[in-house]
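Task card 7
Instruction: Convert sequence to structure tokens.
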Amino acid sequence: MMKFFSSCLIHLEDKGITVEESSNFRECEDRMRAIGKNSITPMISSEHNDLSKDNASWLILRKNGEDIGGVAARHDILVSETLSSFWTRSYARLYKGQGHLHVVSDTPRPCDEISGRVIYMGEFFIAEHVRGSRHLLSLYTHLLFSYSQLRWQPDWLYAFVRADDARLGYATEYGFTRQYPGAHVWGVLPKGRATGEYLVAIRSDELSDMARYFNLHPSCLLGVDSLKRVE
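Output:
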């Protein structure tokens, strides 16, 4: 995994891009706002969470001495609680009545296989003036995958992707191997969230297998630089 992490880092550096790791959560949020990010969702916001520097981090992309993007990751442990019940309980607190989930079923849901040591990834943002590169997008997300695996040794990594972006193939571009449409059914839709978000995930053994493959065939990670946007 270290070889794969280093490979992603080298490819980014070849494009003049460096990566800064930071657990100064408030400062990172301010830096993202400064390059055009309109809001920070409460799931990983320092305003709504007392985040431990051992269990959360930002990776900031920089070019020519300026910030051009960022993404955050948070480590949680889910053993006695399912992912679905964790969301339901957390959102009730985070959205303060302005948004809550509709309980779809009392039976286990497919997405509840995501358990144990889990990494939530959010706040992915690239400044508008540097968007358009598939290579940047793939390298950045795979760098975060390998960073998270090396730091926390999780069982799963997951995120949420808007339905339209999932249908355009962005989840695959990011490197996720699993997609769960309709994982969230909102009773009240909060500001900043979208109806029909896909839960996307990758299991740690799938990530390890993928890293071995891309170490042997790096051109298969990069492919054709053809995507148009990422928000």
